[in-house]
Amino acid sequence: MGDVANGRLLTIDNYYEIFNGLLNPKQIEGLRLLLTPFPQQQFNQTEDRRSVRPSMGVSCFDCHSNGHTNASTHLVGDIRPQELRHRIETPTLRGLNVQRLFGSQRALKTVEDFTEFEQRAAYFDGDPVIATKKGVNILERGSQVHFMAEFQALMDFPPAPKLNVYGKLDPRRATEQELRGEAVFNGKGQCVACHAAPYYTDNLMHDLKTERFYKVQMVNGMKAVGDGKIKTFPLRGIRESPPYLHDGRLITLEDTVEFFNLVLETKLTDTEKADLVAFLRVL
Prior knowledge:
Cytochrome Bc1 Complex, Chain D, domain 2; metal ion binding; Multihaem_cyt_sf; heme binding; metal-binding
């Protein structure tokens, strides 16, 4: 996206000027819909809103800026009771075409399914009555949803010049530390068990059983419970999309490596952890 936008933030005001002649009419319309604000639980034109003035709503690209992410988190909309609702991170849309599961913990099978789910449920905390009151926008599956998906399928991962055609390090371009990190990734670190090249995902869901490490308890009105099954996100371009894990609890790649070192009990040394981070930064 960046090579076309040339550093500009895509908006409803400039998208046509930038992409006219580069996209087909369906893709242009899909991009328009991704940039068009629609009513949502907190931002709408009723008295029940978060903004001072009535709002047209939010667009997909308000959070997925330029098809990437603004690194924000939000309260998951469709879980009850309230104490079990947790925050989820806004993932990047880069490389969406290689993914087969959508939603960090919902296992929706297509991006079209996810688009409809967001509009009908997640945008309004899973309440169809409130959605009707606040102006839910029901997208037409056969055209509008399809157009949005067709555009999103164009968004690729960022360049990774040190990787070869198989998605693995090219020894002629990689540093010794990066090569050691790749060895840790594929060996002692056990990362490859879920994150296989070339896109570093298995497109499955896994339960890390994090409840092993704490007691179920209430913390600031929320119940601390296990995460359950979590989608394996692709690691390509991971350096550009902090924070990490499905809820953004891990701020840096170093934090992420340490988290999995504890959860998977891999007992990596400080040197191995540093090498692994160096490898992740070139994906």
